[in-house]
From TrEMBL, chain A:
Entries under InterPro entries matching the protein: Ncstrn_small, Nicastrin
Protein name: Nicastrin
Species assigned in the record: Nothoprocta pentlandii
Function summary: Essential subunit of the gamma-secretase complex, an endoprotease complex that catalyzes the intramembrane cleavage of integral membrane proteins such as Notch receptors and APP (amyloid-beta precursor protein). The gamma-secretase complex plays a role in Notch and Wnt signaling cascades and regulation of downstream processes via its role in processing key regulatory proteins, and by regulating cytosolic CTNNB1 levels.
Keywords assigned: Cytoplasmic vesicle, Disulfide bond, Glycoprotein, Membrane, Notch signaling pathway, Signal, Transmembrane, Transmembrane helix
Protein family (similarity comment): Belongs to the nicastrin family.
Any GO CC annotation of this UniProt entry: endomembrane system
Pfam families found in the cross-reference section: Ncstrn_small, Nicastrin
CDD domains: M28_Nicastrin
Membrane topology per record: Single-pass membrane protein; Single-pass type I membrane protein
Domain Nicastrin small lobe: 21-194
Alphabetized PANTHER family for the sequence: NICASTRIN (PTHR21092:SF0)
GO biological-process terms attached to the record: Notch receptor processing; Notch signaling pathway; protein processing
Gene name for this UniProt entry: Ncstn
Record field: transmembrane: 641-661
TrEMBL record, chain B:
Main localization of the protein described in the UniProt heading: membrane
Subunit architecture: Component of the gamma-secretase complex.
Family, similarity comment: Belongs to the APH-1 family.
Originating gene: Aph1a_0
One family name in Pfam for this protein: Aph-1
UniProt superkingdom: Eukaryota
Name of the featured protein: Gamma-secretase subunit APH-1
Amino acid sequence: GPCGANSVERKIYIPLNKTAPCVRLLNATHQVGCQSSISGDTGVIHVVEKEEDLRWVLLDGPHPPYMVLLDGSLFNRKVLLQLKGTSRVSGLAVAKAKPSPPQGFSPGLKCPNDGFGVYSEDYGPQYAHCNTTVWNPVGSGLSYEDFDFPIFLLEDANETEVIKQCYQDHNVPREGSGPEYPLCAMQLFSHMHAVTSTVTCMRRSSIQSTFSLNPEVVCDPLLDYNVWSTLQPINSSGKVDPKKEVILVATRIDSHSFFWNIAPGAESAVSSFVTHLAAAEALHKAPGVQSLPRNVMFTFFQGETFDYIGSSRMVYDMEKDKFPLRLSNIHSFIELNQVALRNNSVLWMHTDPVSRKNESIQTQVENLLETLSNSSAGANVTLQDVGYSQPLPPSSFQRFLRAKHIPGVVLSDHRASFHNRYYQSMYDTLENIHVEYPEGLSPEETLEYVTDTAKSLAEVATVVARALYQLAGGANDTSAIQADPKTVSRMLYGFLIKMNNSWFQSIIKPDIKVILGKCDVPQHYVAVSSPVNTTYLVQYVLANLTGTVVNLTKEECLNPEKPPHTEKDLYEYAWVQGSLDPNSTSRVPFCVRSTVRLSKALSPAFELRQWGSTEYSTWTESRWKDIRARIFLVASKELEMITLAVGIVILVFSLLATYFINAKADVLFSIPRDPGAVAY
Amino acid sequence: LCLSCRAFFWLVSLLLSSLIWFIAVKASDPHDEPLQKGLLIFGVMFSVLLQEAFRFLYYKLLRKAIEGLVALSEDGCSPISIQQMAYVAGVGFGLMSGAFSMINLLADALGPGTVGIYGDSQLYFLTSAFMTMVLIFLHTFWGILFFHGCENRRWWEIAAVVVMHLAVSASSFCNPVYVGSLVPSYVLMAVAATWAYLLSGGSAQNVRRFLLCKS
């Protein structure tokens, strides 16, 4: 009602607060995800814990449609397609499986980002569409199916227990016959406004925005910002000298899962960008890097999960001269992809066999591979070359290759298929990369504790930093370049367990500290409002690790146009809030000077308004108004009919009685003889 | 002199009594269960007394109005008798209290769920409807009784109305044992109906003649 939860409403409904919906995403040709009716979908709850329970839902149950409460272990393609094909199911609630399913679970595609990489009918057709190697064999493609009923994830085990208790009390079939009313039911609201495809929804949105005073936009493109920074400062408003060569290091910082804003991405994203950040820190600390012949650019791409939004945009900007660098400036390319699950400390180097057919590229690639192998001497990392038999795994490097043949290598822990059995799923958490802490530690102690995973990632970062030093033309001994496992540990804590920790709080701007307020697990979904927390934090962590503290006041720091700044385009200045004084509640803020910048990561398809493009990513997310879930009891039709009938009978009877009493009023009421009462 | 004025008076009494209850609840400890229950009982009783007080105020207002009407009329007779006033007053009171009881229930009954997930009875809506009906009737009859008592200075009639009102409200604390609240309320309604009928000029003879369809 309009007054919110009044007491009758509280008697009827139990709201489910800790849920995550499955929302609708659209691309140039299809819609994927889930949809509910505009006033929610209701159904009688049935708990499915083993496959035999499905029979009741699909065939035997006498009270369709059913709302299925599915155990996490049964959340696979076979069961979902069975539920999709019947009209007896009005919705699905999935309870997260604890522990994660041992056989693996991935709702992503078997061949991620197929068709948007470099391999196609014109370029290496034998490698296109995963003909040679299936990268994600566990992939079921569930995230890319279209469901016409709502699917929610129940994150809180207590709420799942409440629902199961309600089911046990009211819905369990007794002695073969159906259960009796009242029955426990659930209602899920997740009505999505966009339909069909990006072409349709963007057309409708643009018509609304152009002609309506109060536009009803139905979908938004997925967009965010890429974070990039250079070792030696470059003029961000000008162009870099064409003769200056730059080595590009790249990682992705986003992930995805079947449910909205659930994207822990530990192995698929966090492991790689944390290693990248540690390598950047190690390289900046090395002596003499500012005078190296080649520059190094550290790039963190957003939106790579959705057909390479960030990298395709950066390539487009470089081609159209909207970026300080051009493609011709790039000397070589190193990408870090999923590096946490190494077998026997082996790190594999993937290269593109098609471009290596060219002599000069082949020489440069071999040089690159050799430099990397040399850098691993002394570290607990063995670098091995995958060879010519395999194409590149899905990586941002493929988008750069589409534009220009650049020598490059993709480093990963897997030789052929992913070692990650939970690629782009809700189970890709810290347990997946074996991050373990001893019992009984406080949050501060957990922040500082160095795990084995952190040590292993720090080794990889050391190798990468040393290789970059040599590739950039450094001649000195590289044994002094070491990545710090403590930093890696703190970053793993911050990006996998809790963003609101003391280190992150000390390195961000004072006015955005509210984004760290949430207590739950950090998620790395690209989303439609930007920048997301992950982008902000990568930006500030990179600034802290690679920048310098300068002695400026707050006004000088925040106003780079005024003196004493002399080279305002070379650097970015940020006023960060600093760490908490011990035994005090105030912070000591300071100014950080770094070369960290953001560049827009919106697919060129939306800039060019080619919403049906097959060349650039066209992923959009639908808009919605109301997403919630609740459970309650439903009454039988008989009781409802009886209530209505009783009411109608009483109404008719009262009308008749009033008529007769009125007609015979003079019979029923005689005027009293008492003179004093009535009139004066 | 209309239904809505009466309804307005009931609303004002409800507002004042709910204000008192709200202040009392906020000023007390929300976790003390017996205290909260006690406060609820106190609130209900206070509300009943306040409603009856407002009924009395309305009576006073109507007396003044009748004198005015008589002064304005041509033949010195009032166009509306005090019994008609009493009846209308009672109906207005009843309708407003019924509306307040039922509207929010009906709004929630529109949704897909019914009461019961926390263990309440499934017949909640039906019994609420019957309780509301009996309260509306009771208010109508009490209006007649109360005004008659005020007119003829029979204080025991006024006292009986207040006692009956308190009894019906108190019986609602028996819920969800609906037998405990509905049965006494209907019995009291029958008593009040008979009494009001007799006061309005009816008799057993008239009823027999009515039922046998004689003129």
